[in-house]
Amino acid sequence: MKASQFLISTLKEAPADAEVVSHKLMTRAGMIKKLGAGIYNYMPMGLRVIRKVEAIVREEMNRAGAIEVTMPVVQPAELWQETGRFEKMGPELLRIQDRHGRDFVIQPTSEEVVTDIARQEFKSYKQLPKNLYQIQTKFRDERRPRFGLMRGREFIMKDAYSFDKDRDSAQISYQTMREAYKRIFDRFGLQYRAVRADSGAIGGDLSEEFQVIASTGEDAIVYCPNSDYAANIEKAECLPPAGPRPAATMAMEKVATPGNSTCEAVAAQLGLPLSHTVKSLVLATDETNEAGEIVKTQVWLLLLRGDHEMNEIKVGKVEGLAGFRFATVGEIEAHFGCKPGYLGPIGLKQPVKLVVDREVAVMADWVCGANEEDFHITGVNFGRDLPEPTVVADLRNVVAGDKSPDGAGELAIERGIEIGHVFYLGTKYSRAMNATFLGDNGKPQHFEMGCYGIGVTRLPAAAVEQNHDERGMIWPDAIAPFTVVICPIGMGRSEAVKAEAEKLYAELLALGVDVILDDRDERPGAMLADWELIGVPHRVVLGDRGLKEGVVEYQARRDTEATKIAPSDVLAHLKAKLGL
Amino acid sequence: MKASQFLISTLKEAPADAEVVSHKLMTRAGMIKKLGAGIYNYMPMGLRVIRKVEAIVREEMNRAGAIEVTMPVVQPAELWQETGRFEKMGPELLRIQDRHGRDFVIQPTSEEVVTDIARQEFKSYKQLPKNLYQIQTKFRDERRPRFGLMRGREFIMKDAYSFDKDRDSAQISYQTMREAYKRIFDRFGLQYRAVRADSGAIGGDLSEEFQVIASTGEDAIVYCPNSDYAANIEKAECLPPAGPRPAATMAMEKVATPGNSTCEAVAAQLGLPLSHTVKSLVLATDETNEAGEIVKTQVWLLLLRGDHEMNEIKVGKVEGLAGFRFATVGEIEAHFGCKPGYLGPIGLKQPVKLVVDREVAVMADWVCGANEEDFHITGVNFGRDLPEPTVVADLRNVVAGDKSPDGAGELAIERGIEIGHVFYLGTKYSRAMNATFLGDNGKPQHFEMGCYGIGVTRLPAAAVEQNHDERGMIWPDAIAPFTVVICPIGMGRSEAVKAEAEKLYAELLALGVDVILDDRDERPGAMLADWELIGVPHRVVLGDRGLKEGVVEYQARRDTEATKIAPSDVLAHLKAKLGL
């Protein structure tokens, strides 16, 4: 490709609404162009990256035995009504009506349609296992789309769905996809982790996320540096406390803590480690009648160590706490006779249900609020100052330094961006849609399913979040818009430069290298800045002066300095760099 | 690919709603699966064809210097309001609202979005010409979708848009695309014609359709067998009549024609050629006020030769007849005092506007209705029996035998399916959206535009309409789902068959041939019928008996008999057939 025949359109300034670096840089480099909130044109430079991502995904999916199909973007509502998702999903499911007033949705995923295909196509266990995938446009009507391709409304996703005759076979299909995903992410050339994930709303009980490591990621990943244990912090399990509860050594005492409404402030005032304090969180669950009106509200008090964070997913799994909410200040004051910041489990005015984190259950001599403004209680002990807790559970997020569940050492935490997900779905969809095949026992059985997604347009954004510097993006070779850029300086004035540039360009094309020759005859500074912004991984600069001295300059995008090379050696040098 | 790892799903019966052969065969062959009216899953066998079509289109578009982008499926209404199409387009434009109540459309084409890109990206004439294209999902909410992929609601289209600095340059861009389209359609291996087309609603004044020739096509194509003249019958020009009007030789006479309400019946009764009769067509045009209420209706009488058909597009171009409709029976009876079937221009009760086809204007001694039930008039002549016509125009369709406008002989007519279209748009969209660049005179100028479509999912259907027999489809090599199928008979029982089949399979794969090995161990009859239905162009059958006799069977899909070949020669035979 020659630059004059391509569309290169760089900007000095990032758009005002761009909050994250990938959004800023991809817009400045002319890779994407906003059309509406969360809706982007994929411009030529960006589309090249997307197509390379698609090609790698397609190749590895095919290699893993998955079969490509394409399901419609506009899907009839009937199938979505069979699973109840037409009604249950929130407004992120874009619902539309056609000219005849019939209901449709724009696909956010395709479980319903693919299950409909399976129940028509796969009649016998002999046809199984099968895995159908598509690389197709999706739409999720996010309330607040932002971050460019990181959280768009319209996006491209690879979604695959496996159909198996039983759980054992489904586990093999799951593992096959998991291995394929590893190959895919290895080929992308990104740092990533496969982490255990909570399966959230889609359901199922075995689920892993593929997270691209980036300090700007919105997910926290817990991992063990000594093993391959890794989990989303939402899912990461805390081991039970190591030992039994120490004996009480202090008497209970009410102390004035004026204005100190946080555990940190109280610990500082008392000169105690934060881990000796206990924080009180007040939750509520509502019981509703058929009309959806609240008929009863239950208030809950959660106790967590002062240095720990509550994990909402774990809390939601405590019996009775599914669908919980945080209590209002009014509810808190009604139950505790005190404003938040000084709450505790002792001397309650109204009954609450007490739920205690496992770490708190083994604490002695702890500090909590006194249910009286500007007062706390020290030296609190279960069994003496309040009853032994009856509901004890893992309620908190893992913290760095916790023991790894696999016994391989202490856990660390880093941030990541989810770009892939493998799910074991079980029979959730096949039961809802009565999708069966004839088993080897001659009876209809529900398909065991898995689903497997990769955010094709999200991946380039994640790659940029991981790989950039102050000058621009840094693409891995495999998904770079171009692998090599040739920058001739003063091509319009120097026949020698033009000839040498065209020669190298032709040689690289002949080798099948994805090379661009910048024949725009831009000023050297602007030209080089463009390519550093765009982030092409390998660059050759040729100029008249250099050629007279017998050198051209090679620089990898991460190199801090150029390497001077004889023109006759540059092809060999590039071949070595590209592994050709 | 091995069949056991693919999804082969053939049906004995076509679906009840399938009216055309491509819909029937593609459904029976498991290439497409209906999800809703005009909405199809592209199944693995069908998707392979679509991907090959896409690849050829992409390669030739790139070769012609067009640059690939992807524009969103869901597009904000604002741009469509700029051109007025949001309001003007009928219900085939699917309009939707997002969760915030903002208006969007699902793209049926992308003139607005691409013009928006151009006005932001192309600031100077130095950046022109540019041609941007995409291969992307489209949606048109057809009132009565049918014919499978021939007229779906959701479909894949390649749409390209050229931007030029002036008309001359735009003509070059148009010709470049026209040449690229010829290369594309040549590569598809289909019989086609590039025909002049009426540009219809999209506008513009230079426009050609690429029509795949098929007797089942919905378009009539007029062509000259001795030259490259070809036009859609909607657009095909009738040359002016050769000579002047002959002198009148007959007296006007009213004759009883009881029950003969058609020109054919009257001609038969009178023993005259149909070309001596004149048919009277009654049209109406309505004038409306701002509230859209009809305030005045004008009635028109059109005269056409009895053996000619009215051309609605030509009629619509007559001054005053834009937006015409056919008159109602009530309107006809009020104006003519007579029911349809016996109408004519003589003895009118009410004034009508008379429009006369050029052929009628040079007729003498003709026959028309008497405006009295069961009566016609013979020997009618202009200037004597009624005034000389004042509005004379080309109102009719070309018929076979008409002279070609290029003087190369007589015209013939065949049927075709439109799968491509090249348009010169001029400044229609750039003016509506005020899309300008800085010209070489330093002043803002509107882009000269062209647009160029190919129906990527329609093309396979057209290919099948052209190429099929009673056993199934017959794909050209370039877009066949597989190029070669190896059918081993009794593979499960014979090691020799298995070994020979696997060997040939491996050899063809090594050559890069798109081959499928049917390892399903089906009964021979069912297996061969499947592949004839699917229409793979080259087939090799290996069986135990044949191998013992030292032969395998090669058969091209169009061959009536198989060719026996020594196993050692089959690879060379295939290479010759495939041009390798």
From TrEMBL, chains A, B:
Q: Name one Pfam family in it.
A: HGTP_anticodon
Q: Which reaction does it catalyse?
A: tRNA(Pro) + L-proline + ATP = L-prolyl-tRNA(Pro) + AMP + diphosphate
Question: Is Aminoacyl-tRNA synthetase set as a keyword in this record?
Answer: yes
Compartments it resides in = Cytoplasm
Keyword annotations for this protein? Answer: Aminoacyl-tRNA synthetase, ATP-binding, Cytoplasm, Ligase, Nucleotide-binding, Protein biosynthesis
**Which part of the chain is the Aminoacyl-transfer RNA synthetases class-II family profile domain?**
38-476
A GO MF annotation of the entry reads: proline-tRNA ligase activity
Give the Enzyme Commission number. Answer: 6.1.1.15
**Quaternary structure (record):** Homodimer.
What does the function comment of this entry state? Catalyzes the attachment of proline to tRNA(Pro) in a two-step reaction: proline is first activated by ATP to form Pro-AMP and then transferred to the acceptor end of tRNA(Pro). As ProRS can inadvertently accommodate and process non-cognate amino acids such as alanine and cysteine, to avoid such errors it has two additional distinct editing activities against alanine. One activity is designated as 'pretransfer' editing and involves the tRNA(Pro)-independent hydrolysis of activated Ala-AMP.
Protein's name according to its UniProt entry: Proline--tRNA ligase
